[in-house]
Amino acid sequence: MNILKKAVVLLSGGLDSAVTLFLAKDNGYECHCVVSEYGQRHKREIRHAELIAKKAGARLHKIKLSFPWNGSSLTDASVKLPSRRTIKEIKKGIPSTYVPARNSIFLSIAASLAETIGASAIFIGAHSEDSSGYPDCRVEYLEAFGNAVKLGTRAGIKKALKIEFPLADKTKKEIIELGQKLGVPFQHTWSCYEGKSEPCGVCDSCILRAKGFKEAGMKDPAIN
Amino acid sequence: MNILKKAVVLLSGGLDSAVTLFLAKDNGYECHCVVSEYGQRHKREIRHAELIAKKAGARLHKIKLSFPWNGSSLTDASVKLPSRRTIKEIKKGIPSTYVPARNSIFLSIAASLAETIGASAIFIGAHSEDSSGYPDCRVEYLEAFGNAVKLGTRAGIKKALKIEFPLADKTKKEIIELGQKLGVPFQHTWSCYEGKSEPCGVCDSCILRAKGFKEAGMKDPAIN
Fold first, then answer.
1. Is A203 helix (H, G, I), strand (E, B) or coil?
2. pTM for this one?
3. Touching A: B residues 170-209, CB under 8 Å
4. Hey, which of A114, A124, A183, A205 has its CA 20 to 30 A from A213?
């Protein structure tokens, strides 16, 4: 009998998914990560995902999704990213960086891999407490998607596959503190939406990350 | 004000999705179809989808999904397809042609397109009454997925996007009769899983199609 627990972990190269990976590993799972190239500006996050997976001793599956449509400032370089917004502004409403149905696409692909390799869990680092107002990062959505997987997959019907979102109710500060305990190599994570050689410091993602490190009383090791 | 209703229709080149497209069109929608190349043996169905979309005057978006894993006799040519099964055998359990989480992947991609173009409905031709035992063709699943889209997308939150599965409770016979009324060009549809130059006649899909035409008292115009 195979008693090894397997998990599929959605990895982006960012901080949240890195903490999620190390948490899944800490919970005894053999981790199989999925990172997607979907036309994001910050394609360099994929290189960071590779590094993080390697550090965690996890396998990484790279997926390429080419959609002949656009609808987000994160995938359309001609649309300006939100910049220098206050936390209140960031948390209000759905920003232009929202990518339509992105987490549903990622979670479906994760479910496909999970069934194929016999993984019993899918981990996603989504959280809404201290992030942009993405509808697909909220607990209500994640629970609803988990229910669809329970009904629409072979593994789900057998009650052999569930979606885990361990960061869902945490603040960025709490996520960083958890990552520190777990030994997450924060210096290898990449959050900036711009995807240039250095973090821009002014996009929503940079601002939320800086706030988290500040509140955790830590220096961000990815910033020189 | 734009009063044109738009719909995204999942098209496979098969009979059910063709009927669904013509039904959506009949309901007054401007239809935007999505067909996916996902490693299926019967890749030729894409050519049929092109023909059907053209006949319906609908736009077709082609998506390519390359997954570095396998898990189905429909995508793995080294696994034999089920053959010459009885209807009872076909309906019992989940067959090897089940592709893990396929409809979740397709519906997520459809939701992404729908949000982008401002479509208010996603049409899928799934049904379970007279088909293989795919868990992701059942009403319970389709409703659960619809609920996830309602919670996890910008359009869903605004109650501006819903999933329609008008064939869900119909038999193949009823679907064929409906298609005939709507003028569906059945001769251009392709159902056979083998994907060779002529339908094999013995895979589950060919058997279910033949049963439907027989019960509807019609000759299948795609069979010479």
1. coil
2. 0.97
3. none
4. A124
